[in-house]
Amino acid sequence: MVQSIARAEAEFHPRYDASSRTYLYTLYYAQQNQPLLERYAWRIWPPLEGKLLNQAAAPFIGRYDFSSFGRAMKPGSSTVREVFTSQWTEKDNGWIYEIKANAFLYHMVRRLVYMQVQFARGALSFEDLVKGLSERVIIKPGLAPSHGLVLSKVAYEGRMQGSVDQTEN
Questions:
Q1: Phi-psi region of 42 (alpha: psi -120 to 50; beta: other; left: phi over 0)
Q2: Which of 21, 30, 123, 161 is deepest in the core (most CB within 10 A)?
C-alpha cells in the first residue's frame, strides 16, 4: 500500500537510495500439509519455542560482516550490513520473523532464518549460530524455503523534496 508520495532528486535510485528495508518471514505449525498456507509460509513441526527463536535472533542486531550468511550482489562489494531489528513474533499457529537493515546480501534472510530454526530445534549450538559473525564461515549450510519471505517495507530518508499532493499535467 502506498502511504505517501514525494518528489525525488533527478539522480534518485529507488533501490540504491533506500535507507532501510524490512523483510518478514513466516513459519506455521501443522502436522499435515496445508496447501493454501504453504505457498506463503514454511511448515514446521513440531512447534518451536519462541524464547529460543528470539534468543537466536538477538545477536544479529548491529553492524557486522554478514558474508557467512549471504553473498554480495556484485563481486568485490562490501558484505558489511547494519541490522536494526531482528525479532520473532507469535502469530496464530506460527511465528513471523522481522528483520530490518540498511541492506541485505543475497540469501541473507533465508540463511539467517534457517540457522535460527536449526538452533531452536536443537540441531545447532548458540556458539555455532553466532560464529558466522566473527569467523566468516558457514557453520550449517542451508536456506529456509523462499515461499515464506516477503519484502514488507522500504524506507527512504533525506532524498525527498516534500509531499506531492496533486498530479501535474
A1: beta
A2: 21
pLDDT digits (tens, 9 = 90+) for 50-108: 999 999 999 999 999 999 999 888 888 999 999 999 999 999 899 999 999 999 999 99
pTM to 2 decimals?
0.88
Cα radius of gyration rounded to whole Å, the chain: 18
Region of residue 62 (phi > 0: left; psi between -120 and 50: alpha; otherwise: beta): left
Give first-to-last CA distance, the chain, whole Å. Answer: 24
| 3-class secondary structure, 70 | coil
Neighbours of 53 (CB within 10 A): 22
Q: Is the peptide bond before 46 cis (omega within 30 degrees of 0)?
A: yes
What residues have CB less than 8 Å from 30, skipping those under 6 apart?
37, 43, 45, 93
The residue extents of the domains of the chain are: 16-154
CATH number of 16-154: 3.30.70.660
